UniProtKB/TrEMBL annotation, chain A:
Belongs to the binding-protein-dependent transport system permease family. InterPro entries: MetI-like, MetI-like_sf. GO terms for cellular component: plasma membrane. Coiled coil: none annotated. It is a multi-pass membrane protein. The chain crosses the membrane at residues 64-88, 100-120, 132-155, 176-199, 233-251. Residues 64-252 form the ABC transmembrane type-1 domain. Gene3D superfamilies: MetI-like (1.10.3720.10). This is ABC transporter permease. Its main location: membrane. PANTHER family: INNER MEMBRANE ABC TRANSPORTER PERMEASE PROTEIN YDCV.
From TrEMBL, chain B:
InterPro entries: AAA+_ATPase, ABC_SmlMolc_Importer, ABC_transporter-like_ATP-bd, ABC_transporter-like_CS, Mo/tungstate-bd_C_term_dom, P-loop_NTPase, Transp-assoc_OB_typ2. Keywords: ATP-binding, Nucleotide-binding, Transport. One of its GO terms (molecular function) is ATP hydrolysis activity. One of its GO terms (cellular component) is ATP-binding cassette (ABC) transporter complex. Gene3D superfamilies: P-loop containing nucleotide triphosphate hydrolases. This is Polyamine-transporting ATPase. It comes from the Bacteria. GO terms for biological process: putrescine transport. Signal peptide: none annotated. Residues 5-235 form the ABC transporter domain.
């Protein structure tokens, strides 16, 4: 009897969570398809007018491209740096490597705002005033922890004698890494890279300190639109982002398996 | 005749600990040599140095007339079967075996037939397209063999390749492995800490202890004529009694032990501390019948029944031990057994330091 009630509560909570998580997405997609110029769910009739407006929106395409470029760059750099750092942390015998490992994933735990302010001050102190390099560097810091986290997990299970085997079979060390370690760790690379990429694309609190008029990342641009002309164009953009994310996750799932991606 | 593999004066230390000490070993082409020794004596370290995965502090390495000491692993043409097999989990059985051929840029049309031939040799032909995770331990071991042999190496190194298998399977695999290597005329260094395995498979055994080779000889010689108390102890079982030489001359000795005076052969000074030993199957359950024999009265402690034979364990103190092997049907009564053996079967060593 009590067990039945417990189960019912659990089910209720689960459904509640799902609704709670999905509702904003559904509303966003709905609003983007509504002909009404205010935020409103479509009343019967569906319209693509906000999507048509996207092309004419000033600076939107630029910000999308900028964000994609930054995310791609930061992800690529993080994958290389993160792999090397993870190898050092997992294989090294130097003192303080635990601390180092925690330090390298710490940006995940710090408020973005803090990191943003810190980076701004740091860049200023170093005399770096250009928005683009600042953004690129800052986003490496956004992506790196994701890569570090999945790669240290992956590497701690990686059997390094595989590299020895590949070398005795005729590959030089660098080739052995590329032909054996990279494919074996592919799930970690894909997972870490994917989540890192999305985090960079999505980042607002750090970017906001580093942008200038010519370099606005997508989230910043969107927020500005929302402030200037709050019409459902923003919802249309969001819907496209949701679609892209879903696509990436599906690809990731095909390659790695969603469970494993969420797990590490 | 020039040695196929020549290891000369190789040493290795990690920080202060000396792991290999001025180690030399020469092997003929096609020879099967086991490195036998306790855990931590440096067997794997020596293999890694041979494979080029670890650089020695000094010494020279020659393989097939080539100085390989400075070559990286991928240019040495040495196959390695790793203790955990180190098979590539992302590749099929076929691709694992083909890995070395591809790494060397072997033409595509030569790869498939060669891989098939090797898989047939290790009886894995039908498994070519399996994933590694779908194989049993014994099958994985055979893939590792095939992969190492596929590139036709000058030398194959095997690091306890059978230790992960259960006893029954291990015995079958031993025979198979030996046959395969013999068919190919492959020179092999085989690491094991299982003395029976070493005795069963090897042309010669190098018994290692604390980074040195204590004895390098055929299995029969190692067993019958161990060069040191360590080898005596590590390979096979033995009765071993401490004593003091009380009479010496003409290569004949009398040794006073806690269980009486034993006669033996050897050249030792009077008063020298020695260890007198004999292998269990050399012992007869009776008093010494004539002057060619010598023996003691053995207080019995326990028996182990082994099917066709039985082992009797003596109840001795003070670092002495006794073990007698008899046919299973031998009747033993009482807790005292007179035992004796031929003087020519007696082994005498300078007594090892008390610390041992
Ligand atoms: N990288 C290393 N750093 C420090 N010491 C090491 C290192 N590798 C091995 N050793 C030490 O060298 C000694 C020999 O090791 P090795 O692995 O060669 O032993 P082994 O004979 O193969 O033993 P086992 O039968 O257990 O495999 C050991 O005492 C080990 O602790
Ligand atoms: Mg070892």
């Amino acid at each position: 009897m009590t067990r039945g009630i417990g189960l019912a509560v659990a089910w209720f909570a689960l459904i509640g969570c799902i609704v709670f998580l999905l509702a904003p997405l559904v509303v966003t997609v709905g609003v983007s398809l509504s002909p009404s110029p205010v935020f409103q769910l479509p009343q019967g009739e569906i319209s693509w007018r906000w999507y048509e407006r996207l092309g004419r929106l000033d600076g939107l395409l630029d910000s999308v491209l900028l964000s994609l470029q930054i995310a791609a760059f930061a992800t690529a750099v993080s994958l290389v740096l993160g792999t090397m750092a993870a190898i050092a942390v997992v294989r090294g015998t130097f003192p303080g490597r635990e601390t180092l490992a925690t330090f390298l994933v710490s940006p995940l735990m710090l408020p973005g705002l803090v990191i943003g302010i810190a980076m701004l001050q740091c860049f200023r102190a170093l005399g770096l005033r250009d928005a683009l390099p600042s953004l690129l560097i800052a986003h490496v810091i956004v992506v790196l922890p994701f890569v570090m986290r999945t790669l240290t997990a992956g590497l701690s299970l990686f059997d390094f004698s595989l590299l020895d085997a590949a070398r005795t079979l005729g590959l030089s060390y660098p080739k052995a890494v590329i032909r054996v370690m990279v494919p074996v760790l592919a799930p970690s690379f894909i997972t870490g890279g994917l989540f890192g990429f999305l985090a960079s694309l999505d980042n607002y609190p750090i970017s906001i300190f580093l942008t200038d008029v010519y370099h606005r990342t997508l989230p910043i641009q969107l927020l500005q639109y929302l402030g200037e002309s709050p019409d459902p164009t923003v919802a249309a953009v969001s819907t496209l982002i949701i679609a892209m994310t879903a696509l990436l996750l599906i690809v990731g799932d095909r390659l790695v398996g969603l469970n494993r991606m969420a797990g590490v | 005749m020039e040695a196929h593999l020549d290891i000369a004066g190789v040493g290795k230390r990690f920080r202060q600990t000396v792991v290999l000490e001025d180690l030399s070993l020469a092997m003929r082409k096609g020879e099967f040599v086991s490195l036998l020794g306790p855990s931590g004596c440096g067997k794997t370290t020596l293999l890694r140095i041979l494979a080029g995965l670890l650089s020695p502090d000094g010494g020279r390495l020659h393989l097939a007339g080539r100085d390989i000491g400075r070559l990286p692993p991928h240019r040495r043409n040495i196959g390695v079967v790793f203790q955990n097999y180190a098979l590539f989990p992302h590749l099929t059985v076929f691709d694992n075996v083909a890995f070395g051929l591809r790494a060397r840029g072997t033409p595509r049309e030569e790869i498939a037939p060669r891989v098939r031939r090797l898989l047939d040799m290790v009886r894995l032909g039908p498994m070519a397209s399996r994933a590694i995770a779908q194989l049993s331990g014994g099958q994985q071991q055979r893939v590792a063999m095939a992969r190492a042999l596929a590139v036709n190496p000058e030398l194959i190194l095997l690091d306890e390749p059978l230790s992960a298998l259960d006893r029954k399977l291990r015995e079958t695999m031993q025979v198979e492995l030996r046959q395969l290597l013999r068919e190919l005329g492959m020179t092999a260094v085989f690491v094991t800490h299982d003395q029976e395995e070493a005795l069963a498979l090897s042309d010669r055994i190098a018994v290692m202890n604390a980074g040195r080779i204590e004895q390098l000889a055929t299995p029969a010689e190692i067993y019958a004529r161990p060069a040191s108390p360590f080898v005596l102890d590590f390979v096979g079982q033995s009765t071993a009694l401490h004593g003091e030489v009380v009479e010496a001359g003409d290569g004949r000795l009398s040794v006073q032990t806690a269980y009486g005076v034993l006669r033996a052969q050897g050249h030792f000074a009077k008063r020298a501390r020695v260890l007198v030993a004999v292998r269990p199957e050399r012992i007869a359950p009776r008093p010494a019948p004539d002057a060619e024999w010598t023996g003691i009265d053995l207080p019995l402690a326990a028996q182990t029944f082994l099917g066709s034979r039985r082992l009797l364990h003596g109840h001795l103190g003070g670092g002495d031990r006794a073990i007698v092997e008899l046919p299973a049907e031998t009747e033993i009564s009482g807790d005292m057994l007179p035992i004796s053996w031929r003087i020519t079967d007696t082994l005498v060593f300078p007594a090892p330091d008390v610390a041992e």
